[in-house]
Amino acid sequence: MSAFWSWFIILLVVVNIVGLVALLFATARRRGGDGAGSATTGHVWDGDLEELNNPLPRWWFGLFVLTVVFAIGYLVLYPGMGNFAGRLGWTSGAAAADELREANAKLETLYAGFRGRSLDALAQDPKAVKIGRNVFANTCAACHGSDARGAVGYPNLVDDDALYGSDGETMLASVMRGRHGVMPPLAATLPDGGVDEVAHYVMSLSGRPHDARLAALGQPRFETICAACHGKDGKGNHALGAPNLTDDIWLHGGGDVAAVRAAITDGRSGTMPAWASVLGEDRARLAVAWLLSQNPQRAGAPSAAPAAGAQ
Question: Annotated binding residue at 183?
Fold first, then answer.
């Protein structure tokens, strides 16, 4: 704060206090003599009912004086007069830092009890699961939903399908380091109706309604272009985050021909941000433990994908 504004605030505070004290003592004096009915406002009702203008009772006046004394004492001890820091040297920043250190000390004690244990073991610990549920709700639910079952474009985290692998360590790597999945637009590489043909072939892989003739034409195109990521059988590739096209789980859209055609034509891009700097490993592990607890069959699943950076 500049010196000008500091002195401006000091002057403003002093003028207010002096003005309030002057007003207080001015209204404390009795007016119009000593008679009980002499200090009136001049207002009369019903002929003889007068409105008196007496000073405050002494006990009430004393309370006002005490508030002024308290205010002056506060301004001497604590900041409030421009750049004057107060005799105690208190600052809101220092107070917040002290509270943060105290909170971190408590959290350190709490998280220390969960370190060194496997994610599968934490998924069986009610206390760890409860804390992990809170971490997930505060951090992850905005995208994946409060029940972790996702939405269009945001994967379900508690089913048996996972783009990069469903074991705890792979899920932890996704949380800590993030994921970036990209499917390039392929319309230019599939001319002469190739997009429709491949779309119908993809629909046939999961047994959904499709045009058999177009699907037959799309199969060689799929095996030439799409199999590099999704595999010749269409079952995907965890190492690349390429989805399984033979099941009935669809991340983008409802699994109809139009949605598949749009994905082939325009491509898809999805980013899961890295949360290591926000959550830290302790809280991330507890969040993953909660996810594992929602589908116990996933605990102990074989790891299929390394930690992913930007792909």
Answer: yes
Two tokens at 84? 């004057």
Report the domain count for the chain. Answer: 2
238 annotated among ligand-binding-site residues: no
| Residue-wise pLDDT tens digits, 72-115 | 999 999 998 988 989 998 999 999 999 999 999 999 999 999 99
> In this structure, what token pair is assigned to residue 282?
């302790």
- Provide the β-strand partners of residue 183: 268
Residue 229 is assigned to a ligand binding site: yes
| Domain span holding position 45 | 3-32+40-77
Report field, pTM of the whole predicted structure over 0.85: no
Residue 180 annotated as part of some ligand binding site:
no
Beta strands in 60-216 (DSSP E): 179-183
- Does the annotation place 230 within a ligand binding site? yes
81, amino acid identity:
M
Residue with the two structure tokens 């195109």: 221
Per residue in 196-207, pLDDT (tens digit) is 999 999 999 999
> Which stretches does DSSP call E strand in the chain?
40-45, 49-52, 179-183, 268-272
